[in-house]
Design brief:
Elements lengths: L1 H12 L14 E3 L2 E3 L5 H27 L10 H21 L17 H16 L12 H5 L9 H23 L8
Helix pairs in contact: 2-3, 4-6
Length: 188
């Protein structure tokens, strides 16, 4: 898999010519604003935050493609099965993206939200996504009741949400690392 990823990276960067000797003269732009000179700390923070969000989202979608298995129906003809598979994959991608706060509704991205209700719902959706992963170990039995309590309908106390987040993050890291043999990018 490492060879395949290297090849994709090489293919996507071919044709780019970067002159590093002149990099100091490049004027940086962020959100349509030119940043001559030193980049302010808050802008650097926003850039890194964006990189982490995009990386986490892409890794989560990729992990789901490998760890979630669509179960074929033996009684469907091949053409119908292919159409249903494509539809199922699209629905699954929407389910995965729905687990990331702000991904589908355009709101604030990230799990470090001040809105406890949205934070709880997003964690529960991520838990549901990972419950469907047939190519990874199940979440620890001791963690399941806490993660299942995130479903609601009431908002849990913040310490319980934090504890559930710890268990879900631990399961995500273990599943990702076990399958891909490297650590995932984690959201803030």
């Amino acid at each position: 898999m490492a060879k395949e990823l290297r090849k994709v990276n090489e293919d996507q960067t071919s044709g780019f010519k970067i002159d590093l000797s002149n990099i100091g003269s490049v004027v940086v732009m962020w959100n349509s604003q030119k940043m001559p000179g030193r980049i302010p700390d808050n802008v650097a923070h926003d850039v890194f935050y964006e990189i982490f969000q995009v990386s986490f989202t892409q890794e989560l979608l990729m992990a789901d493609q490998y760890l979630y298995e669509v179960k074929p129906d033996e009684h469907e003809d091949e053409e119908l099965a292919n159409e249903l598979d494509a539809s199922s994959c699209e629905e699954r991608n929407l389910k995965v993206m729905g687990a990331i706060p702000g991904m589908l509704d355009g709101g604030d991205l990230g799990f470090g939200l001040s809105n406890d209700s949205l934070h709880q719902r997003s964690l529960y959706r991520l838990h549901c996504v990972m419950k469907g992963w047939s190519w990874s170990a199940s979440m620890a039995i001791s963690s399941l009741p806490l993660a299942d309590r995130l479903e609601g309908p009431t908002v849990l106390p913040l310490d319980e949400i934090d504890e559930a987040e710890y268990h879900i993050a631990f399961h995500y890291i273990c599943s990702f690392t076990d399958f891909f043999k490297c650590a995932p990018v984690l959201p803030h």
